């Protein structure tokens, strides 16, 4: 009888143990281990900076590394390592034009470039005329619509965050601004700094080929005002010169619509983000302005 009772107790205990196992979640940690839970305080954006090129009709219909057929009329791109299907918002830092593309191929493998765009994606950025151009590309959400896109409001900040700006290309993470507190007047600045993920071992100058600059913009200016009275224009010129000691400030007098106008131009910047950063600083001082692209050469 005692043996029978012991047998019943053993069976009942085993049954309870089995129920406990069956009711445990599938991802529960095994004994002796601790499940790591990632709870970052701020999220970050992965950013790529470097030269972008393009490919078109010669590769039309060929199978890409992902297995898809290349179509120059679809918004796709090639990148060396990003997972297929990754979506990028690519912005030409010369003209501020943006486009969203999807990674479907591997490359490019020459001139230290970071991305190859399909022909339809390269056209709105002005890359088909230049051969290649410096871009900033952000990894965006998988449901972001493909095609032409709005220029990121923080383009200047993304470009300036590059931890290795002299390298031919760089990949880095930029912390996003923290969510503002309720009723806060301004967003809270991120507490972390940009982190370098990868960078080229050669410089931008070494990687750029001579023919890439043909028919591309030479630079950007800030028009800080247009005045009918030249005295007011000179006053604005003097004010900006007192604030920006190392930036060229010029006065241009032109006949516009039959009227003499005096315009104040600030700087001669090689990249749009540089001009935008100065324009934002002028706004802080109460001076409005527009970034204008220098005529093509």
Structure described in brief:
The chain is of the alpha+beta class and 297 residues long.
Ordered list of secondary-structure elements with their pairings:
Blueprint: H1 2-23, E1 44-55, E2 76-78, E3 87-92, E4 98-105, E5 115-118, H2 119-122, H3 127-130, E6 133-140, E7 147-149, H4 155-160, E8 170-175, E9 195-199, H5 204-207, E10 220-227, H6 230-243, E11 249-256, E12 259-269, H7 272-284, E13 290-293
Parallel strand pairs: 1-5, 2-4
Antiparallel strand pairs: 1-6, 1-8, 2-5, 3-4, 3-6, 4-7, 8-9, 10-12, 10-13, 11-12
Description:
- By secondary structure, the chain is an alpha+beta fold.
- It has two domains: 44-213, Barwin-like endoglucanases, CATH 2.40.40.10; 220-293, Alpha-Beta Plaits.
- The protein is built from seven helices and 13 strands.
- The protein has helices at 2-23, 119-122, 127-130, 155-160, 204-207, 230-243, 272-284; strands spanning 44-55, 76-78, 87-92, 98-105, 115-118, 133-140, 147-149, 170-175, 195-199, 220-227, 249-256, 259-269, 290-293.
- The strands form two sheets. Strands 1-5-2-4-3-6 form a six-stranded mixed β-barrel. It has a four-stranded antiparallel β-sheet with strand order 11-12-10-13, covered by helices on one side.
- A hairpin with a 2-residue loop joins strand 11 and strand 12 (259-269).
- The termini are far apart.
